[in-house]
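Quarterly update, task 2.4: coproporphyrinogen I-bound model.
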Amino acid sequence: MSKKLLRVLRGERVDPPPIWLMRQAGRYLPEYRELREQAGDFLSLATIPDLATEVTLQPVRRFMLDAAILFSDILLVPWGPGQRLEYVSGTGPVLSPIRSAADLLRLSPARLSSAIGSVAQTVRRVRGALGNASSDVALIGFAGAPWTVACYMIEGRGSRDFVAPRMMAYRNAALLDGLIGLLTETTISYLTAQADAGAEAIMLFDSWAGLLPPSQFRRYILAPNCSICAAVRQRFPGLPLIGFPRLAGTMLGEYGVATGVDAAGIDTSVSPEVAASLLPSGVAVQGNLDPLAVLVGGEELEAQTRYILTALDNRPHIFNVGHGILPNTPPKHVEELVRIVRQGPSRPFGRDPAGQTAT
Ligand code: 1CP
């Protein structure tokens, strides 16, 4: 019998739905903090295959989740070809910003191959470890989508509004087109290497898709996501693809149709029923519990979880959070969440916590 997550990605409704969580590996786990300290810096943790393998497996072992997600970061794709990158504690990633054609020319995409090599090695080791346990756990590989990676490359750090890349879309579209084109090609190689090494599904994170108006959304989100999905499909026809155009709002429907993804991740702001109605019927919905509800725990966690389970009961559904698990989340609350999801959408709680009944 094939793995639950893969069945849902093929369009099957599975009850209770499989569950995994964005940022399921990370600082909220004491075993992660310990290994992170040993490694010294985040990039070592992400690029030394033995360490990255262990961190990938930690949450799967602790919570018996239905999927492992490769432990890596979306910023290895600019770092590999030579963009300076540092993870500064308290600030997050800091990069030397790309603001001109000369900055772009300094990157050498051929150098990405050594970063790709270490990530492929991690994928092989995780598959080996999961295989030995003859488990039902699927391994998800991933990359950032070009616009989201470009946001960090141009801004040079995390931001709430990423003004520099958005300005570039108006004032120097040729440069942005060049960068998005380069990222589309490198992302295809990066994902192809992960699939070759044994990733069983691929997720494309477009975390900052929601910053663009519709015409730019089509140019910088739809077009590159479509090219990547088509190229990966051509090489790996049966490999399921999950797209996550975060905060895309009503553009979610166009995204689902144009890219042909097998599942769409939805963020916390989207009503699950509306997301389901915007997407083609065979497309699975992945999401979308508020990470803050996991942090808070208790009755709120239970009510919000049951609401989502009920709202997506009649649809291929992968239970997840709407954005990454927060660093202060008590691991006990994740345990509790997994327990609630495995009980399925039992009726008495199938209400929107604000009082609206799920249909
Ligand atoms: O230990 C630490 O201090 C590092 C924290 C951390 C972790 C645990 C970073 C830095 N990256 C990661 C791992 C990571 N990043 C994974 C691993 C798999 C898992 O989910 O368990 C994944 C899938 C990502 C993807 C990622 N990185 C995204 C897309 C998803 C999202 O959160 O929107 C983004 C935007 C990044 C950039 C990034 N890397 C790290 C941080 C703190 C950030 C966000 C910076 C910001 O915007 O403020």
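Highlight for this quarter: The radius of gyration is 19 Å.
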